[in-house]
Amino acid sequence: MQTTSKVNIFALEIWDDEGAKCTFYTVRYDDLQTNETDLFFEKYDALPEYKQANQELLSFVVYAIGEDHGAINELFNRNENEVKGLPVQGKVVLDEITYHYPNFPLRLYALKITNNIVILFNGGIKDDKTNQKSSLHLIWRDACEFAKRILEAIRDGTIIVDKKNRKLTNYDGSDEIIL
Questions:
Q1: Backbone angles phi and psi of 49, in degrees to 5
Q2: Around 162, how many Cα atoms within 13 Å sit in the side-chain half-sphere?
Q3: Which among 76, 74, 60 is positioned nearest to 113, based on CA atoms?
Q4: Among the residues of the chain, which ranges form H helices?
Q5: Whole-structure pTM value
Q6: What is the pLDDT of residues 48-93, one digit of tens each?
Q7: What is the distance between the alpha carbons of residues 145 and 131, in angstroms, rounded to a whole number?
């Protein structure tokens, strides 16, 4: 099946930088007002059958990653090609807290830059064993394309990773990052 990706011009912007351990970024298409991560959480919060799972995933992102542990490998163990799928896969115990999401219906895609900087994308309902067969296929492909372009921009110096201040900047030092 041949598909074309809709990843065109997008902005990289802060989604949440108030956690003690991690700054979260997201992407927003140049022609849209709402970023990809907010589109995900707003969509599944509005669907009664996914509201609880949506809130659990939001809590996992904001508290487990953002506040308590950072983007450690144990919480980013679901490899999905260029991106990671959230929540965590399997049972993970950290500081006497067990993170376990058996048969979890939702996936949110993310790109870990460092243990303290993560870029969140969009996601959806995981309704098949693989992304290629799931209804999430196009969203996952877009997340992989975003990730490729962001990683290339970091490699070529267009985006600077400021580990000390947990932030990403444009090569000229500005916070506005358009790719």
A1: -75, -15
A2: 12
A3: 76
A4: 36-45, 51-59, 137-155
A5: 0.93
A6: 999 999 999 999 999 999 999 999 999 999 999 999 999 999 999 9
A7: 14
